[in-house]
Please model this.
Amino acid sequence: MAKQPAVSIDGFVKEALLKIADTAGAFRLSGTGNDPPKLFEKASGPNKKVLDRLKDSANPLVDVSGRGKTSEVRLTATGFLLVAEALSEATVGRIAKSIAEGLPLDERIKFFDASIRAVPNLAAALDSLRTDTLLLQAEETARRERELPQRLAASERAFKECIDDLHEIGKVWKDELNALRKIAERVVPMNQKDLDFHREAAERLVSAWRDAVQYKKDEGREYLEIALENLGGIQRVGAEGEAVVFDREFHEGGASFSTGQHVRVTRPGWALDEGEDRVYVIEKASVSK
Model:
């Protein structure tokens, strides 16, 4: 018995697209019942290849929204162009308008132009829709131009507020620096009250530095590092990229590290030299292998 030639599904795909195009109301690909109407009784068997082509993720011919009986299927721009020549002028206008309404104004013009280039006979059906879109685009452009001074003024206000915030942050940092300088200038040894105050002020400054590192505020980070290094008693723990021997008192990087292991600093830390061989670690240096 002679082998039967393979059946192309292209004809079935176009037939399905035409049926969807000619249905003005809600429509489903498959499912039970007939409200709303469906394209296929089942989504399995021979219908599966057609459905796979219709819903191809790389170049879909239909757009499906909702699920079950509430699902609806519409032609995409690609599916529309495949069958546009076979549709009536009224149907072309209805579908093109539906597709265009889901696109930004700039994309609508491109869609109409691409449609007319692909199927020149569509020019008459799409000309009025294209003209309406151009008018809407002109109105939108005029509206944006009218609103431009207000938007610029709002941007200027927001920029000024950011600058004011930066000035306030800078003032806070300077206050912290002044407080730390006054403590650092005192004669050691300090009493416990002085030590507590010194630690608290240093911790606030290092906390600000930590936030600058976390949120990648490079300018603020540089300012704070210079300030910290200029203060008496505060020491940097390691430098980024430096090879060091792991010491759990000064380094952190996970439970897998052991004392004496060779590691590399990924973010420095900070400590207070309080005299008499006392070191108070404010922020441990982060390390990795």
User: Anything to note?
Assistant: The chain has eight helices and eleven strands.
